[in-house]
Specification:
Length: 127
């Protein structure tokens, strides 16, 4: 069992930066692939970024590639999403997700892939 708690959301202006954190508790965090998703009002939850449990493999949605960076800190059991050059269309609730993975390089990009979810943190970007 893994518990995930997101933090770091807020209200910012277009062009600003934010760093989201996802603190994980539970066993074997180092063997979980992690992902970030977001959900805007009236829209389905969509993939943002993923990282394998080795930390070497990362994957991004085209809409955030070059602006967002996912990383993980094993000592702190935390996954981060650094978001730069934010746009109003990035406004959404951001969710952290975890999946037990057998391969160090495996990452996952669909909602159904993941076993555990956080409660979400709101990011609002004003124009």
């Amino acid at each position: 069992q893994v518990q995930l708690v997101e933090s770091g959301g807020g209200l910012v202006q277009a062009g600003d930066s934010l760093r989201l954190s996802c603190a994980a508790s539970g066993r074997r965090f180092s063997r979980y692939a992690m992902g970030w998703f977001r959900q805007a009002p009236g829209k389905e939850r969509e993939f943002v970024a993923a990282i394998g449990w080795s930390g070497a493999s990362t994957y991004y949605a085209d809409s955030v590639k070059g602006r967002f960076t996912i990383s993980r800190d094993y000592a702190k059991n935390t996954v981060y999403l650094q978001m730069n050059s934010l746009k109003p269309e990035d406004t959404a609730v951001y969710y952290c997700a975890a999946k037990s993975a057998y391969s160090s390089g495996a990452y996952y990009s669909t909602v159904d892939d993941y076993d555990y979810w956080g409660q979400g943190t709101q990011v609002t970007v004003s124009s």
